[in-house]
Design a protein that fits this description.
heterotrimer; A alpha/beta (565); B mainly alpha (302); C mainly alpha (374); A: 565 residues; alpha/beta; Rossmann fold; 3 domains; six-stranded mixed sheet; 21 helices; 22 strands; globular; C: 374 residues; two-stranded antiparallel sheet; 68% helix
Chain lengths: 565, 302, 374
């Protein structure tokens, strides 16, 4: 029941025959002591879902340790266990060789474990210093807290005004506050969960410089959770790879490369494009002869090249279906969301809109869901203007959308699958103001079959479906309405590989059938896999546009970071 | 003329005191993100229990303690239902208001109560000042507790660790949670504090000013308190100003007919609610209220 | 975009998908038991309370029985008491289903009744027509009072719960003013009589018709109005397109907006409808039993009706038996005075029952969350 550290460590099966060099060869002197964090045989189930199974992890002081895995591989659960937010079913935690029980976040903090959250844990209406001391114990000393914020800021190059109110700060500054909040407790271990998803390239680079300073100068350990291979390769010393709740490999970063990491992370053979999209391995996608999967440069063994849903190099140039011109919008408290956004999507093409998160993608999604009114500019569908923000206007005009967060505007969790399939098209199942249950059920059965939705029955509450199947319900409903334009916002976020493949195919099929498809994604890989044309959104405006064939990542990266190129 | 003015002002202050105690409590609760409409029940329960306690012990001062205990018990029930079982706070509040109104009316007809009143305390010298003396320095002794309670509440909310966590729980419970703050516990504690203070307010009304209990004695003062917190824009200073304005409106309603001035009494009674509604109309869009006010906290829901 | 509604329900949220195989579980079987235990506890507490003040709970129970169920007249009394409660409850259900928590029925009821009284007193014409006009007027009055809250919410973002609550007290004073002003509703002076702050008695021709004669079974027509509206509301909510839209708005306002459900139109409409039902309840009370407006006219019917909706968990058809039960409690309460048990025990029992009915569901939810491990 309680395996010894060694036994558990070796019990992990790796598909790789090579000795696990990274585990045994210390890279820094401090490594000679007991690992600063050691998780042994951790298991956790949520209902029927196995989030972690027999997971072991060793992190040494003085290293940046990457935790790599797809969405849903169990990384976040594992870290929540380490932080005391989730109680594991099995397994042990050793800190500096000593067994420890961590029951809540403050216990974790007392053990010197600190996390920079993916979605910030800051309280907007409090000042920077108040946020920094939040979660401490004892008396609140304002002057000391302010000094501390300045001091920590100076030491790591994270300057921020301690008296500023958090709600006035930019995303990058907020992350600084978040990191200062962690570092000022002088933690032994700093955990970062997908820290760059909200940052520009430049900000990301600064972040990694800071992290390097943290481990090099102070002998702390950093755990970097990511599913971005480039990031792992460039920023970490060692990496643990997880798949479906298990650890599948441990590597010293220097001994590995993007491709082998990708193979281990994904694990099963997939079409090249989907896999590359899922893991964000850009170089696999940006190669000569784009669109023609070639055996030699394939990321993985491509068994069925013909089935690879590579975009057709030249889609038929259809008429303009969706035209947004010079769109301006802002939040109720006057923060700008869109600043003169202009774009066109033609029938039969997929336009991928790339960009760092928080640059107006959500606002654009809201705009096309009729949730956001414009202060200036216009939206036209098939040449006819549509009133932005009026309930149902976009849908009536023929804009279908698979929204970024399906729970927010895509579906009604407490209604049945059948009801969710007719949400917006009630007229088709209504006569004289009354709903026909028979017609609703018939329609539901047809769509469930056509879109391969796994549900016990059409009357099952939407809440009980898996994420992938909920997404299928949304997609089925939107496509069944025979839209002129289909908007897919982060359509594969949080889905497993199978569901990603499904989604990819459906979007291609939609484009082939003549629908104009607009893809909003922060995953460059996904954009490159799917799109015929690529546009870049930055600070609420489209700053560049290119054909898929002309894509060059350097330029894309610069555009996404707001550099003119 | 001066005497009339002094009388109206003194009466304003007297009517403000119970509101102010309860409003301190409601202010704490609302900053923690919970709208406590059971503050009416707390005041009413406090008023009844104070008189009952005074009847049992023969001491009006003990009555105050009984009143606070009643508020605490009501706060405990509210806290357990709303911030442990996650029942909608308004539902709990409505039920508790109905329960306490029924219970106090029932008990009033069933137990023997005797009148008791705490002693007046005229501050030497100061109470002899013209105008200011009777207005500020000649009250029943518990009224002077406010001088300590108000700064203490301010310090508690704005300067203490507890208050910082309380405000975080009211503004962004999810963030507070991941930072290691037990949001529900803080909210429960805030409701308990509110109970003690509202109970004291009710008790003061009964054994401080009136000296007896009558059916539905608070008559909606709890809702006036909520109106005061809103009117004050969720600041303590504003809340106290609101109490003073509403206390004065009440005093004028009672005093003006005697002075021969005719002002619509219904309008004066409705004034607190109208003012609160107007304030919300103008403040609602400036987001001054705690962001998570009235929203139940469930871990993991963003 | 519209501000988020303060909803009685938890917001539409991502819960971990439940295992569909999980259905028959011990905890589910335990819930009815929990309800039984919880309700019994409430009644036992009330009994203890009566015993504590030296009275007999059995005498009280038997008096309550005499007043509410013992004979035809008592049953009729219970049903009469249930009618306005049911009307208020249906209105609350409509608003709650649209995601809006209206707790100002007490005020909407009063305003509705006053408008009804004004029409019934001052409109010439044949009795039945005036009666219908008065009832419609009462509904419109309640709806208009709720419209203030709707306006404040959709125009300025003022939370509906708070505004409807505060408007109760404004309504109290506004109606009190009207009933006190000779130029408005105060009763007309008759030589040699002192007027009090109440309206004139309504002419008998505008009273709601009654079926049966005291001392036999007799009931007012109010319950039929309420029942028809309860069934209608249930059908509309469950079966019609409009009802689907209302429910969609309540469960997920953003998805509803995208699908063409305007929050202002449908949500505001639901709030007005709930005000109209409360106003109608006031109209029924006026024309059916009191026949005049006076102090204490609303008698907590607005609050109790809201509690009926809460206990019925927002299901219109379930509200019918709950309203009848609460009506019986009220009717029985009238008979308590003979026993020496203050009638206020009814309010205590009512409130305890509400707490007792919200407890099991909440407890089950907490336990579910705990076992889910999050």
């Amino acid at each position: 029941m309680r395996p010894s550290p060694q036994a558990s460590d070796t019990a992990v099966t790796t598909p790789d025959p090579r000795p696990r060099a990274g585990d045994d060869q210390p890279t820094a002197p401090s490594v000679l002591s007991a690992p600063i964090v050691q998780l042994l045989g951790i298991g956790k189930r949520f209902g029927a879902v196995r989030a972690c199974e027999d997971v072991s992890l060793r992190v040494q002081a003085g290293e940046i340790h990457g935790l790599l895995g797809e969405n849903g591989a169990g990384k976040s659960t594992l870290m929540k266990i380490l932080l005391g937010l989730v109680v594991p079913d099995t397994g042990r935690i050793l800190l500096r060789g000593e067994p420890a029980t961590i029951t809540d976040p403050s216990a974790a903090a007392a053990h010197g474990i600190s996390m920079v959250h993916q979605h910030f844990s800051l309280v907007d209406r409090l000042s920077v210093w108040e946020n920094v001391v939040l979660g401490d114990r004892g008396r609140v000393d304002r002057d000391r807290a302010r000094t501390l914020v300045r001091e920590v800021g100076r030491r790591y190059g994270l300057e921020v005004d301690p008296d500023a109110c958090v709600e006035d700060l930019s995303t990058g500054q907020r992350q600084r506050v978040e990191i200062v909040k962690c570092l000022r407790r002088d933690p032994g271990v700093l955990i970062l969960d997908e820290p760059t998803s909200v940052l520009t390239l430049e900000e990301s680079r600064e972040l990694f410089t800071v992290l390097r300073r943290v481990v090099a100068d102070e002998g702390k350990a950093v755990i970097l959770i990511s599913h971005k291979l480039d990031e792992i390769v460039h920023a970490t010393d060692r990496v643990t790879i997880m798949r479906q709740g298990r650890v599948v490999a441990r590597r010293a970063t220097a001994d590995t490369d993007v491709r082998s990491l990708a193979r281990e992370m994904v694990g099963r053979e997939l079409s090249k494009w989907t896999a590359a999209s899922a893991v964000g391995a850009l170089d696999a996608l940006i190669e000569p002869g784009t669109g023609e999967p070639t055996g030699g440069t394939a990321l993985l063994d491509v068994r069925e090249p013909a089935a690879a849903p590579a975009p057709d190099p030249r889609p038929p140039a259809g008429e303009v279906r969706l035209r947004i011109s010079d769109a301006h919008a802002s939040t109720t408290d006057r923060r700008p969301l869109l600043r003169g956004l202009t774009l066109e999507v033609r029938a039969g093409e997929i336009l991928g809109l790339a960009g760092v998160e928080g640059n107006g993608q959500a606002a654009l999604g809201d705009l096309l869901s009729s949730l956001l009114p414009l202060s200036a500019g216009r939206v036209e569908v098939c040449g006819a203007p549509v009133v932005a923000g009026r309930p149902g206007a976009m849908h009536a005009a023929g804009v279908g959308i698979v929204p970024e967060d399906r729970h927010v505007s895509g579906c009604v969790l407490d209604m049945s699958v059948a009801e969710n399939l007719v949400l917006a098209d009630l007229s088709s199942v209504t006569s004289k103001g009354l709903l026909s249950r028979r017609r609703m059920a018939a329609r539901a059965r047809q769509l469930i079959e056509e879109f391969e939705i796994a549900t016990p029955s059409p009357d099952t509450p939407m809440r009980q479906l898996s994420g992938g199947n909920q997404q299928k319900v949304v997609l089925a409903r939107e496509l069944a309405a025979q839209p002129k334009v289909l908007v897919a916002a982060q359509p594969t976020r949080g889905l497993d590989i199978g569901a990603i493949e499904y989604m990819t195919e459906r979007l291609h099929a939609a484009a082939r059938s003549g629908i104009a498809v607009l893809l909003l994604s922060t995953e460059l890989g996904e954009i490159l896999t799917l799109s015929h044309r690529v546009a870049v959104i930055h600070r609420g405006a489209v700053v560049g546009e290119m054909d898929r064939a002309d894509v060059d990542t350097e330029r894309l990266g610069l555009l996404m970071g707001g550099q003119a190129a | 003329m001066i005497d009339d003015l002094a009388m109206v002002l003194a009466s304003s202050v007297r009517l403000t005191v119970p509101l102010a105690f309860a409003a301190c409590g409601e202010y704490i609760a609302e900053r923690a993100g919970t709208i406590n409409i059971s503050v009416e029940a707390m005041m009413l329960g406090g008023a009844f229990n104070a008189v009952w306690g005074a009847s049992l012990t023969g001491s009006a001062s003990f009555g105050l303690v009984f009143g606070m205990l009643a508020g605490l018990v009501i706060g405990f029930v509210h806290a357990q239902f709303s911030h442990r079982l996650s029942v909608n706070t308004y539902v709990v509040g409505l039920a508790l208001n109905a329960l306490v109104l029924g219970l106090t009316s029932f008990l009033l007809d069933s137990v023997d109560l005797t009148g008791h009143q705490v002693d007046a305390l005229n501050i030497p010298v100061l109470s002899d000042l013209p105008l200011l003396g009777p207005v500020l320095f000649a009250h029943r002794w518990p009224a002077y507790l406010l001088v300590g309670v108000i700064p203490l509440v301010w310090w508690l909310v704005q300067r203490s660790r507890f208050g910082l966590e309380l405000r975080a729980a009211g503004e962004n419970p999810q963030s507070a949670d991941v930072t290691g703050i037990d949001v529900r516990r803080r909210r429960r504690q805030s409701v308990l504090l509110c109970g003690v203070l509202a109970g004291l307010g009710g008790a003061y009304l009964a054994v401080g000013e009136v000296g007896a209990f009558n059916q539905n004695m608070t008559a909606g003062r709890g809702f006036v308190v909520i109106a005061a917190v809103i009117f004050g824009g969720w600041t303590l200073r504003g809340t106290m100003a609101g109490c003073l304005v509403f206390g004065a409106a009440d005093a004028m309603r009672l005093a003006l007919p005697a002075l021969g001035v005719h002002l619509n009494s219904q309008l004066l009674i409705a004034a607190p609610y109208l003012l609160a509604l107007l304030t919300m109309m103008f403040l609602a869009k400036t987001h001054r209220q705690p962001a998570a006010l009235g929203a139940p906290f469930v871990r993991g829901i963003v | 975009m519209t501000p988020t509604l303060i909803s009685e329900r938890a917001p539409a949220v991502a819960a971990p998908p439940a295992d569909p195989r999980r259905r028959p579980r011990l905890a589910d079987l335990g819930t009815p038991l929990l309800y039984a235990a919880s309700l019994s506890t409430a009644l036992v507490l009330a009994g203890l309370l009566i015993a504590l003040v030296g009275q007999s709970p059995w005498d009280a129970a038997s008096a309550m029985y005499d007043g509410s169920l013992a004979d035809g007249a008592a049953i009729g009394q219970s049903i009469d008491q249930a009618a306005p409660l049911l009307l208020v409850a249906i209105g609350s259900v409509i608003a709650a289903r649209a995601g809006i928590f209206n707790i100002g029925q007490e005020g909407q009821l009063l305003v509705g009744a006053s408008v009804g009284a004004a029409i019934a007193l001052f409109t010439p014409g044949p009795g039945p027509l005036v009666l219908i006009l008065a009832l419609l007027g009462a509904a419109v009055g309640g709806a208009l009072w709720a419209a203030i809250a709707a306006l404040l919410f959709y125009w300025r973002g003022v939370a509906v719960v708070i505004s409807t609550l505060l408007l109760i007290f404004v309504a109290n004073q506004a109606v009190s003013y009207a009933v006190n002003s000779p130029s408005l509703l105060r009763e007309k002076a008759v030589a040699g009589q002192v007027t009090t702050s109440q309206t004139d008695m309504l002419a008998e021709s505008v009273w709601l018709p009654r079926i049966g004669e005291y001392p036999d079974f007799n009931i007012g027509a109010g319950i039929f109005i309420a029942l028809v509206l309860a069934v209608g509301t249930s059908v509309v909510l469950v079966r019609s397109r409009l009802g689907f839209r209302v429910r969609m708005l309540g469960l997920n306002p953003k998805a509803a907006h995208r699908a063409g459900v305007g929050a202002v139109l449908i949500g505001g409409g639901a709030l007005l409808a709930s005000g109209a039902f409360a106003g109608l309840a006031g109209g029924v009370m006026l024309t059916g039993s009191g026949h005049r407006m006076q102090d204490g006219f609303a008698d907590n019917v607005g609050f109790d009706g809201l509690l009926v909706a809460l206990v019925a968990r927002d299901k219109p058809m379930l509200a019918v038996p709950v309203a009848l039960f609460f009506g019986a409690l009220r009717a029985g309460g009238g008979f308590l005075s003979a026993t020496g048990v203050p009638r206020y025990i009814v309010a205590v029992v009512t409130a305890l029952l509400v707490l007792a009915t919200v407890f099991p569901a909440a407890y089950a939810e907490v336990r579910r969350r705990r076992t889910a491990g999050a």
